[in-house]
Each structure stands twice: as structure tokens, then as C-alpha cells.
Automatic annotation (TrEMBL):
Xref: PANTHER family: THIOSULFATE SULFURTRANSFERASE
Keyword set, alphabetical order: Repeat
Source organism of this protein record: Haloarcula saliterrae
Full protein name: Rhodanese-like domain-containing protein
Segments forming domain Rhodanese: 13-124, 154-258
InterPro entries registered for this protein in UniProt: Rhodanese-like_dom, Rhodanese-like_dom_sf, Thiosulfate_sulfurtransferase, Thiosulphate_STrfase_CS
């Protein structure tokens, strides 16, 4: 499964990793990056297309992007950004949904700002040999549709989770959803994940426990990507991912509620 790894682990294993920087291209060029990192800007894989779900890229787009970045099917990937990992998590979830081995996917604990405090950066763009990346989505994924989401609110064994902020939630959320702003799981000082026990306490306070099936949504599936990676890292076994999120829900003219 996709996990979260420390800066020290990345530094110790850098020779066997393909490190992916998902910040804007100008940030990669002008502000330096992790040594050996390749640039795959967030906007380059957030296109959405007629032959994919939600904001996912098409198989062809994804394959071309990873091929150009020198990624092969057996590459072990670490992704990072400069926003507490939320954009990098979206890259990793996209990779998982489109068939990359989840065990070979890692999110840097922290982000570029925290990395550069204690580790070297580079202004050099590494030489990359293009690959022929083959996209092979798995038969089963954590993706669920709007009907499954609607039913989750009435299932005692499930918890429907809105990962947006409190003001967005108050303006309108899927009936029965609990609020968990994804940033509640982030330590503002380290810019990485809260300590394990602290993270589990935050989740339990929101009614999110490992014994339940967890169904996640936000607006466009970016923020739930971070929460998905965190929950899987913490050992939650059944975490479902509503790729369509509120964008699709509202397009289908489904109901919203505003009370807590």
C-alpha cells in the first residue's frame, strides 16, 4: 500500500528511487528541488477526459507523462510538493488507480520547505531516459460511485467523510457526512503527518475508526487523496474513494444538507 516515509529514509534510499516533484514547473526550476527529482507538475495530470473518471487523466495521457519522466512499471516512487503533501498524494493515488504497485508508492512526510531545512537541494535537472510506461489498471480499486456514497450514510458499518474545511461543509455537504478537514492530520510545525497516536485521536473524535468502512469525498478528489494515503498508512483496511466528489454529486442534482 502507499505509505508515508521520512526525509531521512528518502535520503538513505535515494539511489533506488524515482523522486517526483509535483510543484509548478517554475518552482522546480527557480527554487531548486530534491536531488535527482523529476518535474511532473500537478496540472499535467489533473486534466480529466472523456475516457476517464472525475479528474483522472486518460490512460494514454498518464502513460505518456510517466514515460517522459523516466518512470517504468517497476519504479519505486516518492512524491512531494510544498503544500503538506496534498498535491503529491494526488499523484500517488492516481498512480495506484491506474495500476502502479501501491507497495512502490511513497509520500514524503513533510514537503519541500521542511526538506530543505535539513537536507541538500539541487538546481540541476537530471538526465532522464524515457521509458515505455504501460498503464494497466487493476481489476478492483477503491473507487465508488454516487449510489454507494448515498447508501454509506445509512450504513452503521460505514462512515462518510467530508475532507473540506468547515465553511465549505457548512455551505452544503452530502447528507450524513462527518467533517474532517484534511489539514487536521497535518502538523503545522513539521509540515508532515501528526504523530501516530495524535492522528488516531483526531480521527476517533470524528467517528473515523479502523473497524468501519470509510468513504471519502471533497470537491474534486484532491484533498481526499491526502486523507486516503494517511488512513492507509495508519492501517485502515477499507477506505473508499469517491472520485466524482461534490462536483459529480451536484451535477447529478443530488441533495445537500447544511446543518451539522
Amino acid at each position: 500500500m502507499t505509505d508515508i516515509v521520512s526525509a531521512e529514509w528518502v535520503a538513505d534510499n535515494v539511489d533506488r528511487l524515482r523522486i517526483v516533484d509535483v510543484r509548478d514547473g517554475w518552482e522546480y526550476d527557480a527554487m531548486a528541488h530534491l536531488p535527482g527529482a523529476v518535474s511532473v507538475p500537478f496540472d499535467s495530470f489533473r486534466t480529466g477526459s472523456s475516457d476517464s473518471e472525475g479528474m483522472l487523466p486518460s490512460r494514454e495521457e498518464w502513460g505518456d507523462l510517466l514515460s517522459a519522466a523516466g518512470v517504468s512499471a517497476d519504479s519505486e516512487l516518492v512524491a512531494y510538493d510544498d503544500h503538506h503533501g496534498v498535491f503529491a498524494a494526488r499523484f500517488l493515488v492516481t498512480a495506484e488507480l491506474l495500476g502502479h504497485d501501491p507497495a512502490a508508492l511513497h509520500l514524503l512526510d513533510g514537503d519541500f520547505s521542511s526538506w530543505q531545512l535539513e537536507h541538500p537541494t539541487s538546481g540541476e535537472t537530471p538526465a532522464v531516459e524515457p521509458t515505455d510506461y504501460s498503464v494497466d489498471p487493476p481489476e478492483t480499486t477503491p473507487l465508488v460511485d454516487s449510489d454507494t456514497v448515498a447508501a454509506a450514510a445509512d450504513d452503521p458499518d460505514a462512515v462518510l467523510v467530508d475532507t473540506r474545511d468547515e465553511s465549505e461543509y457548512a455551505e452544503g455537504h452530502i447528507p450524513g457526512a462527518r467533517l474532517l478537514d484534511w489539514r487536521e492530520l497535518v502538523d503545522d510545525e513539521t509540515r508532515g503527518l501528526l504523530a501516530r497516536e495524535d492522528a488516531l485521536a483526531v480521527l476517533e473524535a470524528a467517528g473515523i475508526v479502523p473497524e468501519k468502512r470509510v468513504v471519502l469525498y471533497c470537491n474534486t478528489a484532491r484533498r481526499i487523496s491526502h486523507t486516503y494515503v494517511v488512513l492507509r498508512h495508519l492501517g485502515f483496511e477499507t477506505v473508499e474513494f469517491y472520485e466524482g466528489s461534490l462536483t459529480e454529486w451536484e451535477a447529478q442534482d443530488r441533495p445537500l444538507e447544511t446543518e451539522r
